[in-house]
Amino acid sequence: MLEEQIKEALEKAYQQCETQSILAEKIGISQGLLASYLSGSRPINNMTLGTWAKLEPVIRQYLPPETRPVVAEERAAYNAGNLPTPSSLDDSLLTELLEVWSKLTKSDRLRTLAIAHDFLEGPPKHVELPAGEPQRRKREIAG
Fold first, then answer.
1. Which residues of the chain have pLDDT under 50?
2. Which of 132, 137, 79 is nearest to 106 (CA)?
3. Fold of the 2-85 domain
């Protein structure tokens, strides 16, 4: 139900703009992504939090009054940094993450893990790239 209301609000916002490109620019997403939500080829419930954070302020005025408190709660939680935990991620997001991961080189995967480690636990003492990389190096981090 909320998904339908969000799609209808998005369609109303589109009607107020001359083109999808204008609305997409106003939201801060690509015209192709906007078109996929409008056509239904990409379900609204698979929208990332980042896209929702850009979209919600633009369509808020077109949402039915009874949905606004729910949307406001989600916005407040997002702004406060209360993002979903890994256990609350849906299958489509996990699939998307695995698809991106599979396209990374071994070196890029190690860099990504180092960044995630730094984010979660502080910087490691060093990160070694795998043997065979064009420029094998060791990054020392002053701690």
1. 86-87, 133-143
2. 132
3. 434 Repressor (Amino-terminal Domain) (1.10.260)
